[in-house]
Write a structure and sequence with these properties.
Number of domains of chain C: 2
CATH architecture of one domain in chain B: 2-Layer Sandwich
Chains: A alpha+beta (770), B alpha+beta (270), C alpha+beta (160)
Largest sheet of chain C: 5 strands, mixed
Helix content of chain C: 25-40%
Largest interface: A-C, 61 and 55 residues
Distance between the termini of chain C: 47 Å
Structural class of chain C: alpha+beta
CATH topology of one domain in chain B: Enolase-like, domain 1
CATH topology of the largest domain in chain C: Ubiquitin-like (UB roll)
Structural class of chain B: alpha+beta
Oligomer: heterotrimer
Shape of chain B: globular
Largest sheet of chain B: 5 strands, antiparallel
Strand content of chain C: 15-25%
């Protein structure tokens, strides 16, 4: 059968509806004046000239948001800090009141008749600043005497987490035959979904209702954050969303601009739209990663891991984004020892504030930090101990017979066959044929390397149950409502196919609505690769609930006891007879009318799943230019049961290339002296291109999880979690023969060339983050 | 963008008069640099004088043994022109690699040369080939035309009409694209014209320049070994967040070797 | 203000615009053709790609007044019969769907217009030509793997 998605037609014909595609009569346009410096006291803001500009309807400052009763943007820690300590929360106003703390922070919002007029007026605003000293790296922020960002956060550390048993780890290190350590930097990146973020707000003065059209990963989290910030009661805030052009974690939180636009709509009495330019996106979308780390492993004489010890220092930016602490700590806690039998492990995570864009989720959300740390450390140990990296891993993998596995810090993995996944990957990658390929490359003067990563992820359990609702239309169409928003994940198709298979109806009967304000559901936004096991499980319950209703109706129609009715392939039949009625017929008879008997709301609550995989990367480096080319990439993943393998493969492709993007070039760079952002456009921020990955092989080794009815595990982010360590291990393996012993991402041509040159000339063998 | 008035003059003298009478007026050709600059509000012209439709700025022809290309000729026209491909294939190949398809369909040779972006491709060809830039006022030798980053010999209001290239015996261009922007991080154009070897470098420095050391070496023996071990002085080369000057110095040699290899493996250069 | 007359998706239109108005703004705002997307402000992403007189251009890097007298085609006009029922898709649109060459859909219209332009010039492109032909378009979701596949499939369909 030819593949196609239900959502494709509108996208390929240009009929998708993204935030900037909405228009309402009388609509006004907003623009923001943003801080042009990284840290400064605001002495004065002169908006008079701007107010007098043609077409200007409102000029909104912190005075107006204060008058409206706006509060600090919310933030919280998902678990207590070390010794039960609490998160020190920075005040984060919607519009800067007294101090600006990063370049790009919103200071003034202007509303005008056109976007150009609003932009013209922004330029007429005069802000007088008194500069304050800036601190641009986490290391500098936690140093003695560092400039302080927030009065409530002395020393610039908002919280310190600890997970694991430090005493057991210390004891294990005491008695170890070998100790290997590694310092790594996981650089700051910008998620860069292709749709720039935007917001359109409408206010109804009669009812007090706000309708907020916004780029979102799910209405519940967005609404809760807007309510917390604006103080507007929950029942008056309605999130509207149709198509969203990419998310990757960056669309989870309610950016300060959104609250400002809501106020703008009320103050001007008109719908107000703001769509960020890409330049604004770079300066104000949450950035991600930005973690300095040290890892240590203790081994016995046979190469068995005795303990892991990790220290992470996270650059959180100037404020704590709502999802920031979640990303910083939860994945490290859940996957502390990776796929390995380790008797002891501990991680310490410190969150430091710097004069930069706040940090939050980006594809992988912490898993690429812990997997990168563990898998590079394992390779480092293999190198230092002279053990084959595959053999070292194999020696320490948790065997399938040990499932379910209780992890070292008291959590657990439910299922998985790590050795089988490893073997399949090695076979598909022709691991043993590498030596010949390396020799052939060497003859051409190129450096060739192979590397692997065996990794595990924890995909989100979610804070709430997932509710779904089916509404049956008068013409047979069935509209499914759910919270988890699709921004590329193909929910529309996946949900419909899941329901169609169970109910025996064609998938075209189903429509999906994620952000319909008329249907308020409990549920979790898309994130943590959780939608198919979360919402999918709820849909399975929904299908069963619909079948149960159908069974009663069928029993009545067939004049039989419902216990005697069986359901198969869309048809209810009295067991052992040929008397039957189809679900479709029953829907036609009963779905309409005032009773709407088939309309059903169902829910499910699922825990985390633990997708895992083995990725093998093979790269070639041209020493003349330092260009790294990915020649082969093999990904074998256990994502449990696959509902639609084409969609799953698409998720893997995208995530692997996003990982390759970070490995090969993506790097958000601030000027350390001034705090100006230096990579503020696609001219300077190197997005991955079509040339980046050759020879991509995607395969699966499913071990269905018993933790949800579908047996599915998360899949959306595994590609990043696997590709960062696999690719960097391959690159370092390629560089070792010329004498390079350490390399931090990104492997840009200039940095790789520099490392080769330094190693060959004897200047240095370690090429660390600057 | 700030407000401006757009004018599409019917003739070259009319265009020149418009530019002369409005101090804030700027010529608009393909707009591939100018329009993004205006969008970023980095420039505030009073008038944009659109010169792309002027007949005097059009046309590709070989005249008296030289390739004459009108300033308003788009990159795609240079890349696909049978005249260019036959008479100066290296120039067609260079044009085929500028920017991306959308840029090649709009951008013009005159616009690129007049803008003299230090990472643009065309200036290296103009300089290496020793082309002559004909304006509405005079003829300017390539040697005198390029004056460093975004600076040229053009006077205010002066318009490039056409560029006249000698037909090289052998020529080729190789570039290393910037990983983000796609512009030349370093591009090297090697040309042999009338027996003389000229090597021009773009992207690596503050403006296009000639690598005379390589010219001398290649003049002596036109083979890779002549330049394979040449050291490039990094002192005046660009250093930024993307690469240190030493890297660009390395790329100058590596791209020169690639261009040379192209020449040596094809009959007339590529 | 200037009056600009042009043909868009086969229909003659005339709009009054400020001279500083971009072609993309006219398409999206004056004509309501919101399939042409804006993904950046430095002419890098290609989401706004349309055909002007049969050539691919970035409509965010062209003034509307420069399009005077031009024939413009947007994603809405690509399918052979772009009526409301939309029964037919252009082979490139069809291939993108069948090869799963789109996820969030935001880059898709520009990408499809760029591919349609590429295949006009290069009916049987190899991998290198496809990559070269798509240098002006970015996608963040697909890793380009299935886009390259779709270009090849569309090329086969269109040559048949």
């Amino acid at each position: 059968m030819t593949f196609s998605r239900l959502e494709d037609r509108r996208f390929v014909t240009g009929a998708g509806r993204y935030v900037s595609d909405w228009n309402f009569p009388g609509q006004r346009h907003a623009a923001f004046l943003r801080a042009d410096r990284a840290h400064a006291r605001i002495v004065s803001i002169d908006i008079e000239a701007a107010r007098a500009m043609p077409g200007v309807r409102a000029v909104i400052t912190a005075a107006d948001t204060a008058a409206a009763g706006f509060r600090s943007l919310p933030c919280a820690a998902p678990i207590p800090g070390k010794g039960g300590s609490a998160l020190l929360r920075p005040e984060r106003p919607v519009l800067a009141a007294d101090v600006v703390r990063f370049v790009g922070e919103c200071v003034v919002c202007v509303v005008a008749d056109t976007a150009i007029a609003a932009q013209d007026a922004v330029e007429a605003i005069i802000v007088e600043y008194e500069d304050l000293p800036v601190v641009m790296t986490a290391e500098a922020a936690v140093a003695a005497g560092a400039p302080q960002l927030h009065p409530a956060i002395p020393g610039n550390v908002a919280i310190e987490f600890e997970t694991g048993d430090p005493l057991a780890v210390a004891a294990a290190f005491e008695g170890a035959a070998h100790v290997v350590s590694l310092d790594l930097h996981n650089q700051r990146v910008v998620g860069s979904p292709m749709e720039p973020k935007g917001c359109l707000a409408r206010h109804d003065p009669e009812t007090g209702d706000y309708f907020v059209h916004v780029c979102t990963q799910g209405t519940t989290g967005m609404r809760a954050q807007l309510v917390a910030t604006t103080g507007i009661p929950d029942e008056h805030v309605h999130i509207v969303a149709e198509d969203v052009g990419g998310g990757f974690g960056l669309r989870f939180n309610a950016y300060p601009e959104y609250s400002a636009i809501m106020l703008a709509a009320r103050l001007t009495g008109a719908p107000v739209r703001w769509v960020a330019s890409r330049s604004e996106v770079f300066l104000s979308d949450e950035h991600a990663r930005g973690v300095s780390s040290r890892g240590e492993v203790a081994l016995d004489a046979e190469g068995n891991f005795l303990a892991f010890r990790f220290n992470f220092l996270n650059d959180m930016g100037a404020y704590i984004a709502p999802t920031g602490p979640v990303v910083a700590v939860l994945s490290i806690r859940a996957c502390l020892a990776g796929v390995y039998r380790v008797p002891a492990a501990v991680a310490n995570v410190r969150l430091a504030l710097t004069n930069s864009v706040p940090m939050a989720a980006y594809r992988g959300a912490g898993r690429p930090v812990i997997s990168y740390m563990i898998e590079r450390l394992v390779d480092q140990a293999a190198t230092e101990l002279g053990i084959d990296p595959v053999e070292l891993r194999r020696r320490n993998l948790i065997p399938p017979t040990a499932m379910p596995w209780k992890t070292v810090n008291g959590l657990g993995y439910d299922s998985g066959d790590f050795p089988a996944v490893l073997d399949k990957a090695l076979g598909l990658a022709d691991w043993h044929g590498f030596a010949a390929r390396r020799a052939e490359a060497s003859a051409r003067g190129h450096l060739r390397g192979i590397g692997l990563a065996t990794f595990i992820e924890s995909t989100g359990g979610g804070a709430s149950p997932d509710e779904v609702e089916a509404r049956f239309g008068d013409h047979g169409e069935i509209t499914i409502h759910a919270v988890s928003h699709s921004h590329g994940q193909s929910h529309e198709t996946a949900y419909a196919e899941l329901l169609a298979a169970v109910l025996g109806l064609p998938r075209e009967r189903f429509r999906l609505r994620n952000g319909d304000p008329a249907v308020r559901l409990a549920g979790n936004p898309t994130g943590g690769s959780r939608t198919m096991h979360g919402v999918g499980s709820a849909l399975r319950v929904l299908a069963d609930d619909i079948i149960a209703k159908g069974r009663e109706l069928a029993a009545r129609a067939l004049e039989a006891a419902s216990a005697d009715i069986e359901f198969h392939d869309g048809v209810f039949r009295i067991s052992g007879t040929d008397r039957s009625v189809s679900l479709d017929t029953l829907i036609e008879r009963h779905a309409g009318g005032p009773e709407r008997v088939f309309d059903t709301r169902s829910s499910a609550r699922t825990g985390s799943t633990f997708p895992n995989g083995c990725h093998v990367a093979e790269v070639e480096i041209n020493p003349a230019t330092g260009v790294v080319s990915i020649e082969r990439y093999t990904a074998v993943d256990d994502a449990g049961n696959l509902l639609n393998p084409t969609i799953v493969a698409g998720q893997m492709h995208g995530a692997i290339v996003q990982g390759a993007g970070q490995v090969l070039g993506e790097h958000a760079i601030y000027d350390l002296e001034t705090g100006q952002f230096l990579t503020g456009s696609f001219m300077d921020y190197a997005m991955p291109k079509a040339v980046n990955v050759h020879g991509l092989v995607i395969a699966d080794h499913p071990v269905p999880t018993p933790t949800n009815v579908l047996g599915v595990k998360g899949v959306g982010e595994a590609g990043v979690t696997g590709s960062l360590p696999a690719l960097m291990n391959a690159i370092l393996e390629a560089l070792r023969p010329v004498g390079v012993t350490h390399f931090d991402m990104p492997a840009t041509p200039a940095r790789v060339w520099g490392a080769i040159g330094a190693a060959r000339s004897g200047e240095g063998r370690r090429f660390a983050h600057a | 963008m700030y407000e401006f008035t757009y004018i599409r003059p019917g003739s070259l003298p009319e265009a020149a008069a418009l530019l002369a009478s409005n101090e804030g007026a700027k010529p608009l050709s393909g707009g591939m640099t100018l329009i993004p600059t205006l969008k970023q509000r980095l420039s505030q012209p009073s008038h944009l004088v659109d010169i792309t439709a002027l007949a005097a700025l059009k046309g590709i022809a070989v005249v008296d043994g030289r390739l004459e290309i009108g300033a308003a000729t788009r990159h795609i026209e240079v890349a696909t022109s049978s005249v260019v491909r036959q008479s100066l294939p290296a120039l067609a190949a260079l044009a085929a690699g500028i920017g991306d398809p959308q840029v090649r369909n709009r951008g013009t040779m005159g616009g690129s040369v007049a803008n003299n972006d230090p990472a643009a491709d065309y200036p290296s060809a103009v300089l290496a080939l020793g082309a002559t830039v004909h304006t509405d006022r005079r003829a300017i030798a390539a040697e005198d035309f390029f004056q460093g980053m975004f600076a040229t010999a053009l006077e205010p209001g002066e318009l490039i009409v056409r560029i006249s290239f000698p037909l090289a015996e052998r020529a080729a261009y190789a570039k290393f694209p910037h990983p983000a922007s796609g512009y030349a991080m370093t591009g090297v154009f090697i040309a042999v014209v009338g027996g003389a070897v000229r090597v021009a470098v773009t992207g690596a420095g503050p403006g296009v320049f000639r690598w005379t050391q390589a010219e001398t070496a290649l003049q002596a023996r036109f083979e890779s070994a002549a330049i394979a071990d040449l050291e490039v002085d990094a002192t005046d080369l660009n250093a930024d967040i993307h690469a240190p000057a030493a890297y660009r110095a390395n790329l100058v040699r590596v791209m020169a070797l690639r261009a040379l290899e192209t020449i040596l493996t094809s009959s007339k250069g590529q | 203000m200037s009056k600009v007359s042009l043909t868009v998706n086969g229909k003659a239109v005339s709009v009054d615009v400020e001279d500083r108005t971009l072609l993309s703004s006219v398409l999206r705002e004056s004509l309501g053709l919101t399939g042409t997307h804006i993904g950046c402000d430095t002419s890098q992403c290609g989401c706004c790609t349309v055909h002007v007189d049969g050539r691919v251009v970035k409509s965010c890097t062209m003034l509307a007044v420069q399009a005077e007298g031009s024939d413009v085609m947007t994603i809405e006009g690509l399918a052979p019969s772009h009526d409301a029922s939309g029964a037919t898709l252009h082979p490139v649109q069809q291939a993108f769907s069948e090869c799963h060459a789109l996820q969030c859909g935001f880059c898709t219209p520009g990408m499809i217009m760029a591919v349609a332009g590429l295949l006009k010039d290069t009916p049987d492109p190899d991998d290198q030509q496809i990559i070269h032909g798509l240098e002006g378009n970015m996608c963040r979701c697909t890793g380009y793997v299935n886009i390259v596949k779709a270009v090849k499939q569309a090329a086969v369909t269109m040559r048949a």
